[in-house]
Structure formats: structure tokens, C-alpha cells
Automatic annotation (TrEMBL):
Gene3D superfamilies: tt1808, chain A. InterPro entries: Nuclease_put_TT1808, Restrct_endonuc-II-like, Uma2. Keywords: Endonuclease, Hydrolase, Nuclease. Signal peptide: none annotated. GO terms for molecular function: endonuclease activity. This is Uma2 family endonuclease. The keyword Hydrolase applies. Residues 32-171 form the Putative restriction endonuclease domain. It comes from Actinoplanes italicus.
Length: 207
């Protein structure tokens, strides 16, 4: 990508943030043009500017706690943390279990991620369920979990694991209390997350 294109991106970033969503040829080299403090993801060369609501953020906090509780030695669960994949992809998963040796880096090399978790929002369903499954699997992340609070029923958890073909296979999809020993002992109380979501939605309707 030429210097003129990068300069155009710098001007766009400074003057018209909504227009950034229409750009589809970004690389990690271009990210220095963004204003400081901007929350972003780079997915297949397209810049994503997430703006999660409070329910999304609260679920992320609870899930980070759940993944942190029994982390294996040398690992920590971190929320909202950018991962380096390739020149066209720099995802920012809602929760990632990552080796402590890269905690001072941003983005952190994806090779050090043990488990990645995304929380679906109304605008991210395709990215989280399809686009990200491809490059997370290709990058060697064995465990990818997707939490969906957007449906009419309970909050659901989809557990994916890399199979023999190198692509993700669905281990299960559940809205019940989930207990597993893989990749380490983890409990996710999905009914409690559903109750938390529903409390906030009821408060909104009653306001």
C-alpha cells in the first residue's frame, strides 16, 4: 500500500471517523494513523470500530472472572485485548487467556493465546461466528468460545475446538451451567448471565 493511501487514511481518521468503516484495505501498518485511544479491530482488511453496550461489558467482566479462576500457571484471563495475527487481521477479543510473558505487549502474539472468547453483539454475529473462526483456527488457537446474549432465549455458549482437519468443530452449544476440564477447569453459569442480561433489559423497559 502506497504512502499516498496511508496519508489519506490519516486525514480520514482525523476528520471523519464514521468513514473509516467504509475502508476495506487496511493493514496493520496503517493503524498508526488512528487517533490515540480509539477502540478498533482489523478483520480481513476492514477496520471495525466496536461500541459495546453496558450489558456486553458486564458479561465480559463476569466471563473474565470465570476464565481467570483456575487459570493454569503462567496464564491470565484478560478482557478487551488485541492480538497480532497477520497484516490484515488484528482482532480484539472480549476475553483471552494468554501467557503472562506477553502481558506487557499490545498487540500480543496470537501464538500465546490459549483460549479466545467473543461475545456476540447485534452487529458482530457474522464476524464472530464465521470470519473469526477461520483465522483463529489458522493461527493455531485451539479453543474458541462464543457467547450469544442476543437471542430471545437464554444466553448461550458455543464451544469450538480445532479438529483433525485444522478447522473448528463444535463441541457443544448450551444455555445451562457449563463445566469443563478442557483446556483447564472452568465453570460458566449461563443461567446467571441470562438473569443479569434480563435484569438490565427489564430496567430499560421500565425507564
Amino acid at each position: 500500500m502506497g504512502g499516498d493511501s496511508r496519508e489519506e487514511k490519516r486525514v480520514t481518521a482525523a476528520l471523519d471517523l464514521p468513514a473509516l468503516r467504509d475502508e476495506r484495505d487496511w493493514t496493520t501498518d496503517d493503524l498508526a494513523s488512528l487517533p490515540e485511544g480509539l477502540r478498533y479491530e482489523l478483520i480481513d482488511g476492514r477496520l471495525i470500530l466496536p461500541s459495546p453496550n453496558g450489558i456486553h461489558q458486564k458479561l465480559g467482566y463476569k466471563l473474565t472472572q470465570a476464565l481467570e479462576e483456575n487459570c493454569p500457571p503462567g496464564y491470565d484471563a484478560v478482557s478487551d485485548y488485541s492480538l497480532a495475527v497477520d497484516r490484515s487481521n488484528e482482532p480484539r477479543p472480549d476475553v483471552v487467556v494468554v501467557h503472562e510473558s506477553v502481558m506487557a505487549l499490545t498487540p500480543a502474539p496470537i501464538e500465546k493465546a490459549l483460549l479466545v472468547l467473543e461475545i456476540i453483539s447485534p452487529t458482530s454475529h457474522f464476524r464472530d461466528m464465521h470470519a473469526k473462526t477461520k483465522f483463529y483456527a489458522a493461527a493455531g488457537v485451539d479453543y474458541y468460545w462464543i457467547v450469544d446474549p442476543t437471542g430471545d432465549g437464554g444466553v448461550t455458549l458455543t464451544v469450538l475446538h480445532v479438529g483433525r482437519t485444522g478447522a473448528y468443530e463444535t463441541v457443544l452449544n448450551t444455555d445451562k451451567v457449563f463445566n469443563t476440564d478442557v483446556p483447564y477447569p472452568i465453570t460458566v453459569d449461563l443461567p446467571a448471565l441470562t438473569a443479569l442480561r434480563d435484569k438490565y433489559l427489564a430496567a430499560q423497559e421500565g425507564a
